[in-house]
Amino acid sequence: MSEVVYPPESVYNLLTKEEVHAQKPQRYMSKYRPTVILEEKSNKGAMRTMGPAKVEVPSPEKYLKKHSKEPKLPEKTQCSKEVQNTCTMKRPPVPARTEIPPMGIHTKRDFIKTATVVPMKPQPVCVDTSKGHKQPLENSGLVPKYIKKKHYGEVPEYLQQRNEQERRAQEEYDEFVKEQREQGVMKHLSDEERRAVLEGLRKNLHQLHREYQGLSLVTDSLSKKSHKERLEVAIKQLENDINLFERFKTIYISNN
Length: 256
Known about the structure:
Oligomer: single chain
Shape: flat
Order of helices and strands: HHHEEHEHHE
Number of helices: 6
Distance between the termini: 102 Å
Structural class: mainly alpha
Radius of gyration: 58 Å
Largest sheet: 2 strands, antiparallel
């Protein structure tokens, strides 16, 4: 059975305690409350009947007639008719039968050229949206105007300058190599020597790869970390050397 836990007994619990009643705050009452009550009572019985009190009842003779609510225009008078028919600007009078027309008037306008001139053709446009947006056909990219240029298909000037700089640099390098060979400072590797060096480099790279793959996955000591970094540097150097020997067929080495 579960034991009931009672609070600890005390002598002070035997004393009579006074009841404390919580006092509620006074209810809020608006100072305009009496005025509102009086206004409501004074206006309460004003409209007890059907409609406002003491309204004049319409006479049965003044019933609604046809077209009585249409707007009425002011009646036309003789003055308004005269104003409507008058014109502020008078036209020239009709020439008389005995009047001679003016002769000898010359003008610089060429009527023959004006009559035979070819009318201007409308500029071709291209509609590129479903809502009818138009733009000039020449700027739309649909007209082959670039292939009809004067210098179309030619090598740009900046590429010509770059090719010229590369050619000069190659010539200077060839002259430098030739001078070094004549002095006996540099030696040219033959194809057999180049292949032998390349095979040796690949063999060393294969050994380093095999050693690198045999490392532990966890590098929890400084010696393991430094050994791994040394292998990575050596592998990177061998890969660069192999790439260099594979790219260039002609290789020179110093005799020193």
